[in-house]
Design brief:
This protein is α/β, with parallel strands linked by helices. It has one domain: 3-Layer(aba) Sandwich (Rossmann fold), CATH 3.40.50.300. It has a six-stranded parallel beta sheet, sandwiched between helices. The two termini are 37 Å apart.
């Protein structure tokens, strides 16, 4: 009986992992997503890892040869050790090319540090510029191959942008005043949403991760009133910009 219960529990855990992978798989998420969490490192791993599975249960970097993750953060380094442990746990088939696949995966992750909204804006502008340059290079290559009568297998580049610490960037920039901060934030988020205009050559999706704060009812009445009246960044982004909550 106990053995049967253990098997059932194991099946439930595996089913839950499968659901999480399906929900956060790159092909299934929207353009601009928002999530709140009390465990930031765990959520970062949950967000980044499923895309390397593709539509299979096997972890292979070759699932996305043109897949990249841009991890943009403020005072929260990428959880490298947890990410690696999770990959090792999910390597159920004892893949003989595991170390090679691991290297390919890490080569496809770029970590970018930001201090405030100015830094974040600069990163997004540089990203847009690099995308435009790559687009022009691809167009020239296609034209050259067409003139030579050669076949060109055009592959769409997949890019996942994961952002943590936007609330800290906001607080740091807020010395300029609420109106200026909101204007800068709106400009950045509109630029992120504009990335979908590159759909013919790039498939770009963004996940903004915010810390999940405790309910107002768990603090004193005075603090609860102040908290309800303050500008809550995650709620603002969810209401006006996010396509989905994940």
């Amino acid at each position: 009986m106990e053995k049967t219960m253990n098997v059932l529990e194991s099946d439930k855990c595996n089913a839950k992992k499968t659901i999480e992978k399906e929900q956060l798989n790159f092909n299934r998420i929207k353009y601009l997503n928002l999530c709140k969490t009390r465990n930031l490192n765990q959520k970062i791993v949950e967000v980044c890892l499923p895309s390397f599975f593709g539509d299979t249960e096997e972890l292979h970097a070759d699932n996305y040869p043109n897949f990249m993750i841009y991890y943009i953060n403020c005072m929260h380094p990428f959880p490298l050790s947890q990410f690696q442990r999770k990959i090792e746990q999910d390597n159920q088939n004892n893949d003989t090319n595991f170390n090679s696949n691991m290297k390919k995966i890490f080569d496809n992750i770029s970590v970018i540090d930001c201090f405030n909204l100015d830094d974040f804006s600069t990163v997004i502008l540089k990203l847009i510029q690099s995308i435009k340059i790559k687009k022009l290079q691809d167009e020239k290559k296609q034209q050259q191959l067409h003139r030579q009568g050669e076949k060109n297998d055009h592959e769409i580049i997949k890019l996942l942008i994961v952002v943590t610490g936007l609330d800290i960037m906001w607080d740091t920039y807020n010395i300029h005043g609420g109106v200026e901060s909101k204007s800068r934030l709106n400009t950045i988020l509109l630029r992120i949403r504009s990335l979908r205009t590159f759909d013919a050559d790039f498939d770009i999706k963004t996940i903004l991760i915010f810390p999940h704060h405790f309910d107002d009812g768990k603090v004193s009445d005075v603090l609860a009133v102040k908290r309800r009246n303050r500008f809550i960044l995650s709620n603002y982004v969810a209401r006006y910009y996010a396509d989905a909550l994940v």
